[in-house]
Amino acid sequence: DHLVALKVMRLTKPALISPTIVTCDFKDLPGNILNNYLKDDATSVVQMETLAAGQFLLLPQSFGNIYLGETFSCYVCVHNETSQPVQSVSIKADLQTNSQRIPLSTQQNQSPIMLDVDETLSDVIHHEVKDLGTHILVCEVTYMSNYNTLASFRKFFKFEVMKPLDVKTKIYNAESDEVFLEAQVQNITSGPIIL
Questions:
Q1: Contact, 141 vs 78, CB < 8 A?
Q2: What pLDDT does 153 receive?
Q3: Is 69 left (phi over 0), alpha (psi -120 to 50) or beta?
Q4: Strands 113-115 and 56-58: what pairing?
Q5: Which residues of 172-194 are buried (b: 16+ CB within 10 A; e: fewer)?
Q6: DSSP 8-state assignment for residue 62
Q7: CA 20 to 30 Å from 104, out of 28, 49, 85, 110?
Q8: Does 71 lie in the same domain as 49?
Q9: Residue 174 counted as domain residue
């Protein structure tokens, strides 16, 4: 078990979700089950579980996919969960692609710091993605253990980089020695693109 905890969250636009409204009479067989489900739902209003209060912002639940040319952004946080200070804490983050390993962290050139109880060391990382395929964010945390030895651990976060557009071209030769090029550009993302 480690003295510090590592949390990583990809920074993307939150999605809008609507609360799930299921009404059921208390006398019905599934009544208690459904009503308890609504009470545990984070989007329901206390004591008004059957009232639709509108939409809520939902943070991303997974790393998901990213499209070529987008900027990959994430928040990396190391938190001291012990009851004593932790010495010599540092974060290192690299992005591993099929062909290279890119250092990302702004903390890499800084000297290790001490984290007091409940203190955090955090970093926001931005990187423009230029390669298709599988990418792995490698986060390494190093710190001084209770036994005055250097301890470290790594976490890996895998995501796919996909192409956002599909381009098909056709060439037409006219009789007047002119050449016409037809380009069909198709958006293959899950959202709209502005060209």
A1: yes
A2: 96
A3: left
A4: unpaired
A5: eeeeeeeeeeeeeeeeeeeeeee
A6: S
A7: 85
A8: no
A9: no
Q: Residue 36 — φ and ψ, nearest 5°? A: -65, -40
- What pLDDT does residue 30 have? 67
With beta carbons less than 8 A apart as the criterion, state whether 160 and 107 touch: no
Structural domain contains residue 186: no
Q: Is residue 128 part of a domain?
A: yes
Distances (CA, A) of 35 to 12, 21, 29, 44: 33, 10, 11, 11
**So what's the pLDDT on residue 87?**
93
pTM: 0.73
- Of 55-59, 123-127, 153-157, 165-169, the poorest mean pLDDT is in 55-59
Q: Are residues 42 and 67 in the same domain?
A: no
